[in-house]
Amino acid sequence: METRDWIRDGLRAIAGGVLAIGLALTNFLLFVLFVVSLVLTPVLGLGLVLLPLVTRLIRARAAAARHIAGWWGVPIARPYRPRPEGTLPVGPGAYRQIVTDPATWRDFAWLLPGALVGVVLGVVSLAVPLYGIEGILLLPLWIWLGTGDYGYGAIWPIENVGDGLLSVPQGVLILTIGVLAAPYLRRADAWFTRLLLAPTRNAELRSRVTELTVTRADTVDAQAAELRRIERDLHDGAQARLVALGMTIGLAEEMVHRDPESALKLLAEARETSSTALVELRHLVRGIHPPVLAERGLDGAVRALALHLRIPTSVDSEVTERLATPVESAAYFAVAEALANVTRHSGATFAFVSIRRAGDVLHLEVGDDGAGGADPSAGTGLRGIERRLAAFDGTMSLSSPPGGPTIVTMELPCELSSPRTTLSSGTD
Fold this sequence. Notes:
Distance between the termini: 51 Å
Strand order of the largest sheet: 1-2-3-5-4
Number of helices: 12
Largest sheet: 5 strands, mixed
Order of helices and strands: HHHHHHHHHEHEEHEEH
Structural class: alpha+beta
Number of strands: 5
Oligomer: single chain
Radius of gyration: 34 Å
Mean pLDDT: 77
Helix content: 55-70%
Strand content: 5-15%
């Protein structure tokens, strides 16, 4: 790390210590409010209203502590149980849900210890650099004025200025130690916060089960919708043409002896119908698993997709190896849906796709220079991308301020396909 970097981190940590001292005061206030709201519960039911409100404040304070801990490389997940549907924000239902949530009591248990640890570490991270600055600036000044006193009752005469200036290198050393140690003190505070505010093992498992339940339901719904689409396309397209083809050939059979010329026309029409049905079947198969994806992999398929867009689209990909087939398919269709949004809604003149792989995570970015303001709740296909990625524990984030640009960032756990899979994919 360069000198400029550790100085910047140290100053940021010292500022974080000052912030921790200030936030500690809110911990004490919230502790008192929580106790009061519990005591007032039997009194006219005031706690049924007051406790949920105070708990919201405590959770907001705890969320701020988790966010600050994340600044120092200590991520802390939210441990709270979701509020049941139909439950009011205040009242008996909300009160019951709050007091039965273990995370509520962990937040409460953290308030005072978290405040004390934050104050102590904040004071240390602030006092040591200040003491070093005192040695550099103030002590030589006091000695020069003949009023320097180190606590031993000895007043340094003005002729000992040279000896007094020895405090300058000592101050520099203390200041350096303080600046270097401040980030470690902030991380120690973050780890203590994580000790009390992080989800327990049971809470993590419960949250994971809930997430998987929602993901499975979304996946089942998406698969059902996809099956309905395929059935509808078959029924309205290829199936109807194949039925017409059979009827045309039947008429030709009846007319082949008594009107050969008309029969030939019907057979020519049947040939055209069969070609059209074949094209529709190819389009349908391409919608299920594009042949170009099986032949060229994700990199080649996305580049081929970009060539057919009506706006210039650049593709920057570092992933040339083959991935597992389900992952390739999910990533391809997610990029395709994002690019479809660009062409339909953004009004952009340029788009880009970036594909990276870091370890076992595939990173995808699709961006444009359009009008921005994309909203997943507006039915622009972004929810579909989220559902598609969630089936693989993937995530999607969106940055689309009004006026643009819009950037869709997707992450997808992935693994390389086996050599056998790669070989078969390339020879089919």
